[in-house]
Structures are given as C-alpha cells and as structure tokens.
Design goal:
The complex is a heterodimer. Chain A has five helices and 13 strands. By secondary structure, chain A is of the alpha+beta class. Chain A starts with a strand and ends with a helix. In chain A, strand 9 (about 160-165) and strand 10 (about 170) form a beta hairpin. Chain A has helices at about 25-40, 65-75, 100-110, 115-120, 215-220, and strands spanning about 5, 10-15, 45-50, 55-60, 85-95, 125-130, 135-140, 155-160, 160-165, 170, 175-180, 180-185, 210-215. The longest helix of chain A is centred in the first third of the chain and has 17 residues, at about 25-40. Chain A is elongated, with a radius of gyration of 19 Å. Chain B is α+β, with helices and mostly antiparallel strands. The two termini of chain B are about 35 Å apart. In chain B, the strands form four sheets. Chain B has a seven-stranded antiparallel beta sheet with strand order 7-6-9-4-1-12-11, with no helix packed on it. Chain B has four helices and 21 strands. Classes of the chains: A alpha+beta, B alpha+beta. The interface of A and B includes residues 12, 53 and 57 of A.
Chain lengths: ~220, ~325
C-alpha cells in the first residue's frame, strides 16, 4: 500500500511505498502502476514506477496535486494476482573483450571469475523497473557475496548490450551510454525496439529473467 | 523529391524537430522530450497558422542556413534570434514574432540566438516527418523521432508535403525577458542537506556550466553539503528536478533527461519558470527562490493566461 503521497514540484505526485527494496513492495508498486494505467486518466502525463516509489506526473492545465491525490487515494487497486511473470532468457557472451570489469569484480568480491559466472548464471532475476535509458531493465537480486559498488569513475561510454552488476542488481545497456556499473559480458539480444510502439521493451517490470552463457561464436552468429 | 523543400546548407549546432513531446513512456525509459521553451514553440506555430502540436525546428546558439525551393511559403521565428533573409538582389534583417514569406531560391540564415539558448522556426505547412508514439520530437539519445532520431546534418532536405493556404503576414509584440531568479519548490530530499547547504541553495548565486544540453543543466557555485546520504534508491525523475550528486554541484533535469536517477532531489523548478530556465546560456547567473505549492499553481495559471493572451493577439 502507499504509505505517503507528497508533491514533487507542482505537477507530480510522489507515492512512497516504504523504505525497503524487495519484491513484495515492488509488486505493490507495479500493481498500482498497472491499475492506474488501465484507468486512462487524461490528466496524467506519465507514470514512473521504481523499486519502492511511484511518481505520477500530470498536466497542470487539467488538474492539480490535491485533486489528483484524492482520485488516486480512492482508486480501486486490484489485489488479485493479475501480474503475469513472463520468463525471458537472455544470452550473454563473457568473452574477455566484453567483460570489461571482471578483474575488478574478482578483486572486490574476492571470488574467482568462474564462481562469479556460476553464481550469475544460476540465478533467476526479477525485473523491478525499466528506465534511465530507454528499455534498460533493473534486475534483482544478487546474493550478498556478489554485491559490488559502482566504478569510482564512471565510463563515458559503456558499449551497447553490456550486461553489468552493481549492488544487488544486474542490468543491460540498451544503448551506448555513460555508466558506472561493473560490466561482465555482452548480450546480442535486442532489448529495446522503438519500431514496436505497443511494446518496445522485451523485459518489463514483474518479468523473470534468466541469463544463459553463449560462446563468442554463438554471439557472432546470433540471429533473433 | 517533393516540389516544396528546404535544402540545409548549414545544420547549426543542435537543430532538431520538436513538437509537444510524448506522453506516458517514462516507465519504458523514454522521456517527454518536445520543445524546450514551450511558449516560444507554440507562438511560432500560431504565427504561421499551423495546428497545435505541429513540428517546428528547434535550434540552439547557432541556427541553420536553409535555401528554399518551391511555391511561396510562410515562416516565423521566435525567441531572441538574429537572422537574415537573402533574396535575389537584397538581404533583409529578420524580425522575430512576425510571419514572413519566402520565395523560390530565398535563403534563410539563422545566425544566432542572442543571450539565450533556443529559438524556433515554424514552417507554414505540413512537413513530411516520421512520428513515433504520436510525436515527431527527436530524441537523439534514444534515437527516436523525426530525422531518424538525429540532429540536423549539412546537405539534408526538409520536404514540405502541403503548404498552408493563407499567407497572411502576422505580427506579435512580445519581448523575451531574461530572469536570474528561478522559483522552486522544496524537493523530496531537501532534508538530506545541512542547514548551511540549504542556505547556499536558496541564497547564493550559481553559474550555468558548459555541460548543459537538452538532457540537463549543470550548475557551478558553492558546494551544497549532504549530511545523510549522497545516493538514494533509484527512482523516477521529472523535468525541473534539481539533483545534487556527491560533488555538491546541482544538476537540473531538462526535457530529454534520464527517466530514473539515484541522487537526492533538493528542489524542483516550478512549471511557470521552466521556459525561462532553459533559455539561460552557459555563464549565466542563476538564483533559486523558494515558493510553496499553492503559489506555484497560481504562478502557472498566470503563465498560462499570458500565453493564451499572446495567442489571441495573433488570432
């Protein structure tokens, strides 16, 4: 449930679902997000679900904070389990040309790379949110022994397709972009496709992701 | 090739097609985009009799040099812009907020924006463009929208599929004013900052840095000290949010911002001041002034009323 609704500036509601980042809290956020989306409220411009927050930005010409807050508070949120958890397999090549930060991770985590990859590929990930850059999925949760901080100095350019870790999360760079996550491989799979307007993101909040290791040869001959 | 078109001789620094932007895609990771200075964008289209939400060319600092081929066409430029029209035997200095006719072979040379950043060129007619999610706005970061998601290049062409019928020349008396005081509402992490940090934020002057584009505006000045945590759990952003990373220098999110961020939010620029904010060029001074929510709402009503007033002067 929403713990608190504040205003973020004069044209957005900031809905707080509690401090903790876990699947239960995030599932609540996603439920609210989907329920509000279904209502097609014309004054709403955008919905931003994240780990434990939902930001609702609106058109100040059509409504205001007070009125929209009331509307959201009185909304019927379906509590049934209507969230379909799509399972998606993402191929990753861990060739050392792609695994830009594997040495750093070995040192930071005090684990051999074989162990890091074994842990990574045996895990089922949950998509908490998508964004920052178009289509980028934030996937959790890495076990405690796999958690490392961001790079001290972020890269100016992280290659497209990079699969990277930080703290309890993994993500996939859908575009070349600046970034500070620890890159361990690269996926040839297209995660964001702007030509599919209905559903441009392959991975959406609530989905389950499994990474599968592929060879350099399979990577090069990858055909969607 | 269509009969009426512009040849881009010089692209300018950052020329893109923009309209009102795209909605309901933050959750996918796609920002609003659209014209940075909404009012000037709107006025440019109104001056040439275009429909609401028609595409216009947005340029920054130095605009494009365009050569026109085709039947007589109506154009208008808004902002604080220096430009000239070169006709066969005469060169005319152009005035903003006035619709003008171009004829076959005329050149439109948009030299510069004057102590501001963005200007708009509206073309009286329909431009042949690709729409994505009901908007032509170019987002160069996500490579979406018109012009293959890219900024203008030299030698490209702008095809006009249909010209507007009436070529009535219209004029508006409007002066862009520049403001240093930008009004803000306290952000959701305002209390992450020390008393001294809050005071600095609300009382001291900042300078707009060179690292400023359609995504964000980085500011330089006295450092704002954080006493809780320099990171928050990543969450949504909206345009106008002012984040303060560990280095203590504020960054204001602008129309092409990343949709998720993990730095504390010290404030949010009020909607009424956004158009003025984006026009502050690198080196400009900026001071933040705090207002409450109801004042911000009233100021927006006033802003909207002023805009409607200007539009009714044109119509």
């Amino acid at each position: 449930m929403i713990k608190n609704i504040l205003n973020l500036g004069d044209a957005a509601l900031y809905c707080d679902f509690g401090k903790d980042v876990n699947r239960e809290t995030n599932t609540q956020v996603i439920r609210y997000f989907k329920s509000i989306q279904k209502e097609n409220i014309v004054s709403i411009n955008n919905l931003s679900p994240s780990y434990n927050k939902l930001i609702i930005s609106f058109d100040l010409k059509k409504t205001n904070f007070k009125d929209l807050k009331k509307l959201i508070e009185n909304l019927n949120i379906t509590n049934e389990d209507d969230l379909e958890n799509k399972k998606i397999e993402v191929p990753v090549c861990c060739d050392e040309n792609f695994a830009l930060d594997i040495v750093r991770l070995e040192n930071k985590l005090n684990l051999k790379r074989e162990k890091i990859y074994e842990n990574f590929f045996s895990k089922e990930f949950f998509c908490y949110m998508t964004g920052f850059i178009a289509g980028m999925p934030f996937l959790g949760d890495l076990s405690k022994n796999m958690r490392a901080n961001r790079l001290e100095t972020p890269r100016v350019r992280v290659p497209k397709g990079s699969v990277a870790l930080t703290e309890q999360f993994a993500n996939i760079y859908t575009f070349e972009s600046p970034g500070g996550w620890n890159v361990i491989g690269n996926s040839p799979l297209r995660i964001f496709d702007s030509s599919k307007e209905e559903s441009p993101n392959l991975i959406n909040p609530g989905d389950i992701v499994l990474f599968k290791e592929i060879s350099k040869n399979q990577y090069e001959n990858f055909n969607e | 090739m269509s009969k009426n078109y512009f040849q881009v001789i010089r692209a300018g620094i950052n020329t893109t097609f923009q309209d009102e932007g795209r909605k309901n895609l933050y959750h996918v990771g796609i920002p609003f985009s659209g014209a940075m200075d909404k009012r000037n964008y709107l006025l440019s289209n109104k001056l040439v009799g275009n429909k609401i939400n028609s595409p216009a060319l947005e340029f920054a600092y130095q605009g494009p040099l365009l050569k026109y081929f085709g039947n007589k066409i109506n154009i208008a430029i808004t902002g604080d812009v220096n430009f000239r029209i070169k006709k066969k035997d005469i060169t005319i200095d152009g005035n903003c907020y006035q619709s003008l006719n171009l004829e076959d072979g005329d050149e439109l040379d948009i030299l510069s924006t004057n102590k501001s950043v963005y200007g708009y060129l509206a073309i009286g007619g329909q431009i042949d463009l690709k729409y994505q999610w009901s908007s032509c706005s170019t987002n160069t970061k996500a490579i979406i929208g018109a012009n293959d998601g890219k900024k203008f290049k030299n030698e490209q062409v702008i095809n006009i599929s249909q010209l507007n019928n009436h070529l009535v020349e219209k004029k508006l008396n409007y002066l862009n004013t520049k403001i240093e005081n930008i009004r803000i509402i306290k952000g959701t992490n305002f209390d992450y900052f020390s008393d001294k940090g809050k005071k600095i934020f609300l009382e001291k002057e900042f300078i707009v840095s060179k690292l400023t584009d359609r995504m964000g505006m980085r500011l330089e000045g006295p450092k704002i000290e954080n006493i809780i945590d320099t990171n928050i759990k990543s969450e949504g952003l909206i345009k106008g949010v002012i984040q303060v990373p560990a280095d203590g220098n504020p960054i204001v999110m602008l129309s092409d911002h990343g949709t998720i961020g993990g730095y504390p939010k010290i404030g949010v620029v009020i909607s009424a001041d956004y158009d003025k904010l984006v026009q502050l060029s690198p080196g400009s001074k900026i001071k933040f002034k705090q207002v409450d929510l109801s004042s911000a709402e009233n100021l927006f009503k006033l802003y909207d009323l002023e805009t409607q007033n200007l539009i009714s002067q044109i119509e």
